[in-house]
Specification:
The structure holds two protein chains of two kinds. Chain A is an alpha+beta fold. Helices cover about 35% and strands about 25% of the residues of chain A. Chain A folds into three domains: about 45 residues, Uridine Diphospho-n-acetylenolpyruvylglucosamine Reductase, domain 2 (2-Layer Sandwich); about 110 residues, Uridine Diphospho-n-acetylenolpyruvylglucosamine Reductase, domain 3, CATH 3.30.465; about 110 residues, Enolase-like, domain 1, CATH 3.30.390.50. Chain A contains twelve helices and 14 strands. The longest helix of chain A has 23 residues. Chain B is built from 20 helices and 29 strands. The two termini of chain B are about 35 Å apart. Classes of the chains: A alpha+beta, B alpha+beta.
């Protein structure tokens, strides 16, 4: 399980990066965190002629908020998104979701730009980009480019990026006041790719839903938004019956694959369960009641159990 | 040693062991936890050649032709080998005296045909692993498919495609155990429960992949194999035979080994190949498995289908048990254990810790075009316990008895030991009934049932599961670890010596790969000899260290190694006391050894071990010539039969009806492993083994498709539980009665993996009992649970907004 031979470049500027990419004629791969790329190299499922390491390119690790929203540099590590005060304050749904990305060692290396470019159909960040209507900024020899997240994910491990194009920044537009959120993931094990995951934001005005966004991952060839379900929610008053109806709508709206872990029927059931739960969380948080701070209430029991399972506790009977 | 047992009077007398029984931290841990361990792949050998294998991507096919020319021409490639290049080497055959058994011939590289996906066909030797893997891509193999042999039941039928033509059958072994007239007893049983049970295939998935390094010293004619093996002695003996070398010309060293779980307890083709090539080329040759290779080629386990029926009287007392087991053993009968090891133990242990007056268990071990199976932690008993404990609970459900009560009525009682089981195993007294009682008390069983009733009233799916089992550990020479095997696994040897500086070194044939034997064996020696643990150095995992030793497997090392250590320490101590009696001018009866010194009891007159050693070895004249005995003892320990270890596991869990997620809330284990050398290590073994049992129950499954392709070929697809999937585990240690083993130790390294799957299966069945769902197949993955619940139309509509918090009041 060793990679085939490749060349390696570590340019110091974006201009050099895109020039090398252009020169390689599609036979280059960008190396950021390497957490998905390197295994593919080792399995020889990818055999690029050259790896372009962007870790020394300055200016790609910004994480800042302005009037329009949050700007996330392409080299921002998952762990930074998970723990940043800024992200927790403005996009707690993102911080919560990032805690579900693999394990800490991987989150310390994996990057936002890398995750979007890799376009794994069961990953969390692409779903969040879709949910939050992210704008993905890029650079190519032709200059700067922008992609709406809605058109960015084209298939399993396929994005809209051109061969000579690299992600530079992800811009998340700010959420309107009165917006609540929910995130739920079902993975067989803590840290695994989602068998199914759902995320929602709901904005309430006068007790009715003014805007709803609902995204899923793990249930199609790309992460998806459920526009029809969202449309049905707008104007309605939150409640258990509405959640059930939306869940049923979502269950029939999706067309999941079957694989080793889960059948399409089971994924549909998970979609229904997770959609009901993320909507209930979202409007509870939007409803003026005290939303759970920093997504603490969203963690599943596993995290709480960790502390209790101290293996060499003294004095066990 | 501040946490030694508090018995000041006994300590003052020097009569009671001081470190046995204490929670002493493992002496190997500072090394292992700070990255200073030395594993096979850590060994730096400058001019070693690296091997990479082209493995079969066909399940069962003739090898029509192999073209290695392009690969051999690649710069950096030293040699490319096929079976034809190793024709002078006899294939390995795991022989057995068992009737109706067929050994299989296994060469280091597939000869003539391939029998599973992953079987090595071509070996490339190159200056680096990278170059070797580049060359693999240039090898051209023409296969002619023979059709996979996937379903063991179909493969067992007359006329099935044969995997090994010379055997004339795919049924490599068959066996039957019987007691009484089971047909008559079953016919008269007013209550009968039964079913078809299935445990899916597992792989051990040790943290360290298999790794081998062979070096041949031409000048000394010495072949040294550094190997991540659990059985250095067995590998040495086999290599001596295979390569026709003298025993002292082959040394097999298992350095630090990162887990084995049985997967490193057999001989491997890669191991033989690196040894052969190093000798042939005169250059070191190494191979370290990558994870893909580990998942497709390390011995797998637990792949059985069991038809079983239990007959009981109206009071819930067992009258009869019958079972028909088909073990899918994979492509070869593994050396040295044979393909019979795992499936035969399913039927020999099926009656478990219960009184079963009439029994018939039949088993067939059937070869299929999958990776060979071998020993895996628990061997047979995780499956037999799963089946028997499910049957017991099914019977309880039918009779309206509490699962605890039906066990009380059937467990072998303290006054019935020694008890000969229906399959002929003899249980010495162990805490069968006591462990059940202890678990119920520790878990507050009555309180749990009340909490469960309340939770059920809210529509929650909560379950409580029990499993009691017994196993045979520390097996001596009277019983073969595997049926009919021509290798003695019933003895272990140690040599303990005081050198001329007074330091204690003890050499063993056991081979710790995570068990903490460097600590526990030192504890035994320190107590018996009267020195401190830090005075004792344990040498193990080296075939050159002792004349005979097989290794660490089958829950044997504390019993056999600890027994040999006890005997040799006593001999050595007697020699020390005799020498000291001259030096101190006191009778040996007046002497006591403690903390590395020998004292005249009740006085301050003492000599240290170092002083005694100097007097014996260096300071000539201090002792009469005849009193200078060598300060060394070699002893072999043979427990002859072995001893029963037993436990009861209790599992609490909840199923989320909306997502079919299983949340384990708590596990409680009450176990009897006799005299405990180190409770911290015993706890660790229970925790680790229970985690593997959780894997067997809920997560781990080797999946082959109908064409024999392995689908679970990564650790993303073969799902091993991590710390986050393991709930709190409470452990109660019991000592019903010390066994007759020297030292009173029982083996306990495997037990957690035996009890946990059955307890979890029973808890799942209990949680689903309102819907009449039978749990007969493990692992219960989310998908499987979804299908069970969908078939039974369990209500998912309640759809609670979140996963509920624990139903157990803490």
């Amino acid at each position: 399980m060793k990679p085939a031979a490749f060349d390696y470049a570590r340019p110091g500027s974006l201009e050099e990066v895109v020039s090398i990419l252009a020169g390689a004629g599609g036979d280059a791969k960008v190396l950021a965190g390497g957490q998905s790329l390197v295994p593919l190299l080792n399995f020889r499922m990818l055999r690029p002629a050259i790896l372009v390491d962007i870790n020394r390119v300055p200016g790609l690790s910004a994480l800042e908020a302005d009037g329009t929203g949050l700007r996330v540099g392409a080299l921002t590590r998952h762990h930074t998104l998970e723990t940043s005060r800024l992200v927790r304050a403005r996009f707690p749904v993102l911080a919560t979701a990032m805690a579900h990305v693999a394990h800490l060692a991987i989150r310390n290396r994996g990057t936002a730009g890398g995750s979007l470019s890799h376009a794994d159909p069961a990953a969390e960040l692409p779903m969040l980009a879709l949910l939050l209507d992210a704008e993905i900024h890029t650079r190519s020899p032709a200059g700067s480019g922008r992609h709406a997240a809605g058109g960015f994910f084209l298939g399993p491990l396929v994005s809209a990026l051109a061969e000579d194009e690299v992600v530079t920044e992800i811009v998340l537009p700010g959420l309107p006041p009165g917006t609540g959120w929910g995130f739920e993931e079902f993975a067989q094990r803590s840290g695994d790719f989602a068998i199914a995951a759902a995320a929602a934001t709901v904005t309430l005005e006068g007790g009715r839903i003014a805007q709803a966004r609902l995204a899923l991952t793990g249930v199609d060839e790309t992460p998806i938004r459920l526009a029809a379900v969202e449309a049905d929610l707008v104007g309605a008053r939150p409640g258990e019956a509405l959640a059930r109806a939306a869940a049923e709508h979502a269950r029939t709206a999706v067309n999941p694959n079957s694989d080793l872990k889960a059948s399409a029927e089971y994924r549909r059931r998970l979609v229904a369960a997770l959609v009901a739960r993320v909507l209930a969380s979202a409007w509870a948080r939007a409803g003026g009641g005290a939303p759970a701070p920093d997504g603490a209430a969203e963690r599943d029991g596993a995290a709480e159990r960790d502390g209790a399972a101290e293996p060499d506790r003294e004095g066990s009977p | 040693m501040s946490d030694a047992p508090a018995d000041p009077d006994a300590l003052a007398r020097g009569a009671r062991p001081r470190s046995i029984g204490a929670r002493i931290r493992r002496v190997e841990d500072p090394r292992l936890l700070t990255g200073h361990g030395s594993f096979t792949d850590d060994r730096i050998v400058p001019d070693a050649l690296h091997v990479a294998f082209r493995r079969s991507d066909h399940a069962h096919a003739l090898i029509r032709s192999v073209d290695v020319a392009a690969a051999a021409a690649l710069p950096g490639v030293v040699a490319v080998l096929t079976a034809a290049d190793l024709a002078d080497l006899a294939p390995v055959r795991a022989t057995s005296r068992m009737r109706d058994y067929h050994a299989t011939a296994q060469a280091p590289l597939a000869t003539g045909k391939v029998r599973y996906v992953g079987e090595p066909v071509v070996a490339v030797l190159a200056e680096s692993r990278y170059l070797a893997e580049d060359a693999l891509e240039l090898v051209e193999i023409a296969f002619e498919g023979l059709g996979p042999v996937s379903d063991p039941e179909a493969a067992a039928r007359e006329g099935a495609t044969l995997l090994h033509e010379e055997a004339g059958t795919n049924v490599l072994a068959r066996r039957e155990f019987a007691r009484g007239d089971v047909e008559a007893a079953m016919a008269q049983a007013p209550v009968r429960v039964g079913g078809r049970f299935r445990m899916h295939r597992k792989t051990p998935a040790a943290m360290e992949n298999r790794s081998y390094l062979a070096e041949y010293d031409r000048g000394r004619r010495l072949l040294t194999l550094t190997s991540s093996t659990q059985i250095p002695g067995i590998v040495r003996d086999l290599l001596v035979e295979l390569l026709d070398l003298p025993g002292h010309g082959v040394r097999v060293v298992a350095p630090d080994v990162g887990g084995g779980f049985g997967g490193k307890a057999s001989l491997y083709q890669e191991e033989v190949l690196v040894a052969v090539l190093a000798r042939r080329l005169g250059r070191p040759v190494r191979w370290t498995s990558d994870r893909l290779e580990d998942l497709i080629s390390t011995s797998q386990g637990f792949d059985e289908r069991v038809e079983a029926e239990l007959g009981l009287d109206a009071d819930g007392r067992i009258l009869a048990l019958r079972a028909d087991v088909v073990g899918d053993v994979g492509a070869y009968s593994i050396y040295p254990w044979t393909a019979a090891l795992e499936p035969v133990q399913v039927v020999s242990f099926l009656p478990g810790p219960y009184r079963v007056p009439a029994y018939r268990g039949r088993v067939r071990a059937v070869c299929t075009s999958k990776a060979p199976t071998g020993p895996y932690r628990g061997v047979g008993r995780p499956v037999s316990t799963f089946v028997m404990e499910r049957l017991i609970d099914m019977a309880a459900g039918r009779l309206g008895l509490d699962p605890a009560e039906i066990r009380r009525r059937n467990l072998v009682r303290p006054d019935e030991f020694p008890y000969r089981t229906a399959s002929g195993i003899v249980w010495d007294r162990s805490a069968f009934t006591e462990s059940l009682a202890a678990v119920l008390e520790a878990a507050d069983y009555a309180g749990l049932r009340a909490a469960q009733a309340r939770a059920r009233a809210e529509g929650r799916l909560v379950g409580i599961g029990l499993a009691t089992y017994a196993e045979l550990t520390g097996i001596g020479s009277r019983i073969s670890a595997a049926p009919g095997m021509p290798i003695n696994t019933g003895t272990e040897q140690t040599t303990i010596r005081l050198d001329s500086t007074g330091a204690v070194t003890a050499a063993f044939g056991v081979a710790s790969h995570g068990q903490g034997l460097e600590t526990t064996l030192a504890q035994v020696i320190a107590d018996e000899l009267g020195c401190r643990i830090e005075d004792v150095q344990i040498l193990q995992g080296d075939s050159a260290a002792v004349a005979h030793g097989t290794g660490t497997y089958a829950s044997r090392s504390a019993v056999l190694g600890g027994g040999a250590a006890t005997l040799a320490s006593r001999d050595l101590k007697a020699k020390l006391l005799r020498a000291a009696s001259h030096l101190l001018e006191a009778g040996t009866d007046d002497l006591e050894a403690r903390d590395g010194a020998i004292r005249v009891a009740g006085t301050d007159r003492a000599v240290t071990f170092r002083q005694v050693a100097r007097a014996v070895y260096s300071e000539m004249g201090r002792l009469p010539k005849d009193a200078r005995e060598e300060l060394e003892s070699t002893r072999v320990y043979d427990p002859f039969f072995g001893t029963a270890t037993s436990a009861t596991h209790l599992c609490l869990l909840e199923i989320d009806p909306a997502t079919c997620r299983v949340r384990l809330d708590r596990l409680v284990v009450a176990e009897d492993c006799g005299r405990i050398i180190n409770p911290m290590i015993v706890d660790g073994q229970v925790h680790g083994a229970v985690a593997q049992g959780i894997g067997a129950a809920l997560y781990e499954e080797v999946v082959y498709d109908a064409g024999g392709q392995l689908l679970s070929a990564s650790l993303a697809d073969y799902v091993v539980p991590a710390a986050s999937e393991v709930p709190p585990i409470d452990i109660v240690h019991l000592e019903a009665e010390l066994p007759a083993t020297v030292g009173g130790f029982r083996g306990m390294g495997e037990g957690g993996t035996i009890g946990a799957p059955a307890a979890i299966a029973n808890a799942l069945a209990d949680a689903l009992s309102p819907f009449g769902i039978a749990v007969t197949e493990l692992p219960v993955t989310p998908e499987r649970l979804f299908r069970l619940m969908a078939a039974a139309r369990t209500p998912a509509a309640s759809n609670p907004p979140k996963e509920p918090s624990s139903w157990i009041s803490s």
